[in-house]
Amino acid sequence: xxxxxxxxxxxxxxxxxRIAELARDITRDLQKVExxxxxxITLIPILTGSLIFVADLIRELPLRLQVKLMSISxxxxxxxxxxxxxxxxxxxxxxxxxxxxxxxxxxxxxxxxHTLRTAQALLAQRRPQSLRTCVLLRKNRPETRDVPVDYxxxxxxxxxxxxxxxDYDDYYxxxxxxxxxxxxxxxxxxxxxxxxx
Length: 197
Ligand code: IMP
Ligand code: MG
What we know:
The protein is an alpha/beta fold. The protein contains three helices and ten strands. It has helices at 12-33, 51-58, 114-124, and strands spanning 5-10, 40-47, 64-67, 70-73, 86-87, 102-110, 130-139, 151-156, 161-162, 178-181. Strands 2, 3, 4, 5, 6, 7 and 8 form a seven-stranded mixed sheet that branches. It has a three-stranded antiparallel sheet with strand order 1-10-9, with helices on one face. α3 links the parallel β6 and β7. α1 packs across α2 (51-58). The chain is globular and about 55 Å long. Inosinic acid (IMP) is lined by residues 46, 49, 74-75, 82, 85, 107-115, 160-162, 166-167.
């Protein structure tokens, strides 16, 4: 697995440091709106890519919090470009009403934005008191600027990245750093293209 790495883009130390900063921002923002009572928040990570990020993030948040999982997939199997977001309804265990709740949607990476737009629309229908979005990575692509996100840990080049929860063909999630993979590892991605169905 180590031999498949082309380049380490973000080290584990840099990730840990940045997550601590984000957690301080999230806590401060919540305290601003909930100054009169103990702030509570519900984190909704989008599986599977944000698994490791959310695990580290919640341990930096000194808040009363809940975690509800949501599953949306757009990169089936060995694809390296998005096929459009599909909500896997069976794995969406979000309460029908989020009235009165502060929600923080958490994803691993903002690429085309289909996944986050889908998730944001779905959650907004459930009328939370506030809905904020936090991503570990944002790719440097023009489309990503149109998707409203409140917290971004790192901006990355428009390349396929893996590690720290992000997969290629469901592998490499366990790499502690964010990396690019050698080109021979990535199979040619020849069907449909980035915004395919
Ligand atoms: P979007 O809907 O195109 O923004 O895609 C977002 C989802 O695709 C993310 O939640 C990731 O799971 C996956 N994804 C996007 N880019 C990458 C990448 O470079 N490496 C691994 N997964 C990615
Ligand atoms: Mg994902």
